[in-house]
Design a protein that fits this description.
- This protein is about 30% helix and about 25% strand.
- By secondary structure, it is an alpha/beta fold.
- Strands 3, 5, 6, 9, 10, 17 and 18 form a 7-stranded mixed beta sheet that branches. Strands 13-12-11-14-15-16 form a 6-stranded parallel beta sheet, sandwiched between helices. Strands 2-1-4 form a 3-stranded antiparallel beta sheet, with no helix packed on it.
- β1 and β2 form a beta hairpin.
- The longest helix is centred in the middle third of the chain and has 13 residues.
- The relative contact order is 0.16.
- The model has no long low-confidence stretch (mean pLDDT about 95).
- It binds zinc ion (ZN) (2 copies).
- One zinc ion binds next to α4.
Length: about 350
């Protein structure tokens, strides 16, 4: 499934463009999840830059989408010694330069040249995918192929919680129960924090309730919503609020629902600049942390699942064949309904 331009994604028959050069891996795709960013790139391109050759991947659009996947290694390039044909893997989607200060310090999600599989290079809505071996994340036996395709968004949830310094037993509110909100709430549970989920959509709220989360419809004024949250989580409010909505009133409400010393983690990208009441932060040491993707988090998620601490299967609300994927992107862009994660069965 190839992205050609805004509003133009379709199934094409093409040869793999990336060479299986040194340090590269080729794999047969099993499952690929549809990400909010795939939907966003079709509506209003953000990461894909038409007419620009990516400095790390050497590719330019059109590009095959898909960066949340599980696959089986079919071939490896020169110098790849820790992977072999037959290995089951998922992938960290981040291309990185491995030289800039961010990369050297281990925060390659902030790489100056960063790119993503499935946006900056051909991705996994295709039978075969090639990517750097450093991206490969071996799947433990306990992690199924379906769940292997969830490691990437779960890593986003884990990274967000780490950014907020989440600790077991703290009170947590998660705003938005889309794929990332669901990942944050599920990962938090396995870390010993039980989320209160704020979600406007009744169907998604029902999904969160079915998962056992307390929920709230954050209708109304931010201060009123915050008051309801304090009533539900107790005492002064939540120690951590993870905003996965990117909605304009969410940050204001988040600030009001945190307890003294609370941390707000902004994971959604607001559509326009938001005013922040710095006075409410100084009184009393509330802080805001931005989170972007993940760095070295997929193996940790795989280990949590393998240990039986994390059960993300219920996030998958629908499975579709690759042939239906372009239409599905348009449908999700128009109205996601109560879907959380739609999984594409690439390996027929
Ligand atoms: Zn994604
Ligand atoms: Zn770098």
């Amino acid at each position: 499934m190839r992205w050609h331009s805004a509003g133009d994604v379709r199934l094409d028959d093409v040869e793999l463009e990336l060479p299986l050069g040194p340090g590269m891996v080729e794999a047969e795709v099993a499952y690929t999840g549809i990400c909010g960013s795939d939907v966003a790139e079709v509506k209003a391109p953000f990461a894909i830059r038409p007419g620009r050759v990516h400095p790390l991947t050497g590719q330019e659009p059109p590009v095959t989408l898909g960066h949340e996947f599980s696959a089986v290694v079919t071939a490896v390039g020169e110098g790849v010694e820790d992977l072999a044909p037959g290995d089951r893997v998922s992938a960290d989607a981040c291309w990185r330069c491995n030289r800039c200060e961010a990369c050297v310090s281990g925060r390659y999600n902030l790489c100056r040249l960063s790119g993503s599989i499935g946006l900056s290079s051909d991705g996994a809505f295709a039978p075969l995918v090639r990517f750097p071996a450093y991206c490969a994340v071996p799947l433990p036996d306990q992690v199924s192929d379906e769940v292997g395709a969830l490691l990437e968004p779960l890593a986003v949830g884990l990274h967000a919680l780490d950014r907020g310094g989440a600790r077991a037993g703290e009170r947590l509110a998660v705003i938005g129960y889309g794929p990332i909100g669901a990942c944050a709430a599920l990962v938090a549970r396995s870390l010993g924090l039980e989320a209160l989920v704020l979600e406007r959509h009744a169907g998604r709220r029902a999904r969160a309730e079915a998962e056992g989360f307390a929920t709230l419809d954050p209708a109304g004024e931010p201060r009123e919503v915050a008051k309801q949250v304090r009533g539900l989580v107790g005492s002064g409010g939540a120690e951590i609020v993870v905003d996965c909505s990117g909605a304009v009133p969410a940050l204001e409400a988040a600030l009001e629902m945190t307890t003294r010393g609370g941390r707000i983690v902004v994971a959604g990208i607001p559509k326009k600049p938001l005013p922040v009441d710095a006075g409410r932060m100084v009184l009393y040491e509330r802080s805001i942390h931005a989170t972007l993707g993940y760095a070295n988090d997929l193996p940790r998620v795989a280990a949590m699942i393998a240990a039986g601490n994390l059960h993300p299967e219920s996030m998958i609300t629908r499975r579709i064949p690759l042939a239906e994927t372009p239409a599905e992107l348009f449908r999700l862009g128009a109205d996601p309904g109560d879907d959380v994660k739609v999984l594409v069965e690439v390996r027929a």
